[in-house]
Specification:
There is one protein chain. The chain is α+β, with helices and mostly antiparallel strands and 64 residues long. The protein has one domain: Multidrug-efflux Transporter Regulator, Chain: A, Domain 2. It has three helices and three strands. The chain has helices at 10-17, 21-30, 47-60, and strands at residues 7-8, 37-39, 42-46. Strands 1-3-2 form a three-stranded antiparallel beta sheet. The termini are far apart.
Length: 64
């Protein structure tokens, strides 16, 4: 069972990771991360998923 205390909104997660909230939305749209739950209309994310997406974002956009 997922505890709401372990989940963050896009704004909260962005602040923890050091990126903009719009980056979280872009990563969600591109499929790099997925929200695990909703609170009303707000998506909630695991912070570990957001950190993993941030670590991998540079690798996906490098030219080969």
């Amino acid at each position: 069972m997922i505890d709401d205390e372990d989940l963050y909104t896009a704004d909260e997660a962005a602040g923890e990771v050091g990126v903009s909230a719009s980056a979280i939305y872009v990563w969600t749209h591109r499929g790099y991360i997925r929200p695990v739950k909703k609170r009303g209309r707000v998506n909630l994310y695991r912070i570990s998923d957001v950190f993993a997406a941030e670590r991998n974002r540079d690798r996906k956009h490098r030219r080969r």
